[in-house]
Amino acid sequence: MQAWEIISGDGVDALNLNEREIPIPSPGQVRVRMNANSINYRDLITIEGAGARKLPFPTIPNSDGAGVVTAVGKGVKLKEGDRVTSCFFEEWTAGEIGASVMASALGGARQGVLAEEVVLPEHGVIPTPTSLTDEEAATLPCAALTAWHALTLPRPVKAGETVLLLGTGGVSVFAQQFCSIMGAQTIVTSSSDDKLKKMKALGASEIINYQTNPEWDAIVLELTGGSGVDRVVEVGGPGTFDRSVNAVRVGGIIGLIGVLTGVSGATNPTPIMAKSVTVKGVYVGSRAMFADMNRAIETHKLKPVIDQIFDFKDARSAYHTMRGAKHFGKLVIKM
Length: 335
Fold this sequence. Notes:
Helices cover 28% and strands 25% of the residues. It is an alpha/beta fold. It has two domains: 2-141 and 285-334, Alpha-Beta Complex (Quinone Oxidoreductase, Chain A, domain 1), CATH 3.90.180.10; 154-281, 3-Layer(aba) Sandwich (Rossmann fold). Strands 3, 4, 5, 6, 7, 14 and 15 form a seven-stranded mixed beta sheet that branches. The chain is globular.
């Protein structure tokens, strides 16, 4: 079988498509023929930063894939022919995240799924929603589950609440779709008017171009009558966090997810304390959360937004497109 491998720290163009032996599942494991992968920004920076991260070579990239079970080990309830989707963390079945969970991320700490056949623990996959194709299901493990986690904990968004979504990346697009089925209003920021129009078509209540309106937090306050939003899906990091704190209401929630504006910066904790804001770090989610999300997807017949589908042998192009940041929705690799 064939698998893409990170074999050096030389970036996307150094990825190698190599031959590997077809893996055999041990007890408690399943072998999955991958029909599709989707890529995340995290996958791109893992490849680009493989040397600095001291990644073992070779490493198969990607956390998100969907396909069909082709073999099972002893003690497994799944059957050959079952459709399944990978879980980002192999060992986060339920409950709180811990150090052992963090060490079980696919496509980084553990081998990823950009291969024709992969072996995963049975608890590291989840049945694919029947309403989705494998290409659509492959978009769920990271971006969709991150958005779901940010909107459901420490408590679920309530119908009628207002949620601020920063940017129009994969997490924010899924968050918009989930807010629509939850009955929540949204305010969306982006530097692209075209992408804002697309978010409006998905149900966004208000849109703000932060390039032409750099003090976008003041506009959010104006749109909410001065009270602020109930929740923020914060993907920017240090460059946007203080404005997010200003834009959220007293007693509101900020789901802190990304660092798209960088990894360094200073934050004044006083407004967080003064407004009794809950700031929750969000790093994808558990298999139990995934199951809850899939039920919502099935019930509402939600369809992930896919921008482009690339052939398996042209996987490098998918990462270059991710780096270009012109896409709206997910980038998928079809085996």
